[in-house]
Inverse folding.
């Protein structure tokens, strides 16, 4: 009997990718270009992109939200999984990073599905709520400034329809959440507080998935 999630050493991880990753050529090249950047670690793992694309398909999402776009890999994965006419509102503050993504979105033919909002995400989310889009989103990916996770999550929950799904990234934070020598940082503390709080949040059904750097799935209960 398996009593806990399996850990992946390099060999097993390579095998997982070998027998399951279906990455488009455009996505692979975006990942390769991003890998050369100083902040490359902010990009999600390819198997996580594929997992989120599958979630988007499973819930039949048409309207999605992303908080923290970086160079656009996750947005590319989600947008490619949305049906034609689908819409992804992508929030970020960095024009340089998102410009990289925009090149690949165009190449992949999904530019018309992605609405990039260059502004602090809280402002964009509040603007969406003020514009009457409350309860209209099917899917939300939260992956920006860690100390604001709770603020993003509250707004995302407002914007999601009942049955809509929020995915929150980096919830295992490279193990710092259990490392006494490293857990005093602001980001780590924020993630730890978020994880504790959502455990008791009866508004959502919950699962923390050890994919990438840890991904919490929270479904807004009807
Ligand atoms: Ca992340």
């Amino acid at each position: 009997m398996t009593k806990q999630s399996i850990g992946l050493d390099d060999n097993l991880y390579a095998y997982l990718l070998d027998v399951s990753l279906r990455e488009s050529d455009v996505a692979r090249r975006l990942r390769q270009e991003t890998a050369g950047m100083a902040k490359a670690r902010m990009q999600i793992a390819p198997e996580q992109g594929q997992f989120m694309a599958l979630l988007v398909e499973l819930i039949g999402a048409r309207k999605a939200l992303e908080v923290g776009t970086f160079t656009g890999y996750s947005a590319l994965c989600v947008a490619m999984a949305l049906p034609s006419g689908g819409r992804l509102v992508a929030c970020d503050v960095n024009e340089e990073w998102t410009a990289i993504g925009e090149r690949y979105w165009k190449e992949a033919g999904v530019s018309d599905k992605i609405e990039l909002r260059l502004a602090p995400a809280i402002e964009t989310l509040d603007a969406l709520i003020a514009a009457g889009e409350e309860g209209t989103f099917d899917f939300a990916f939260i992956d920006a400034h860690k100390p604001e996770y709770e603020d993003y999550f509250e707004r995302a929950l407002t914007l999601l329809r009942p049955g809509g799904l929020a995915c929150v990234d980096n919830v295992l934070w490279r193990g710092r959440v259990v490392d006494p020598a490293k857990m005093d940082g602001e980001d780590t503390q924020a993630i730890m507080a978020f994880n504790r709080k959502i455990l008791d949040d009866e508004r959502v059904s919950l699962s923390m998935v050890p994919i990438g750097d840890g991904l919490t799935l929270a479904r807004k209960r009807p």
Observations:
- The mean pLDDT is 97.
- Residues 42, 44, 143, 169-170 surround calcium ion (CB under 6 Å).
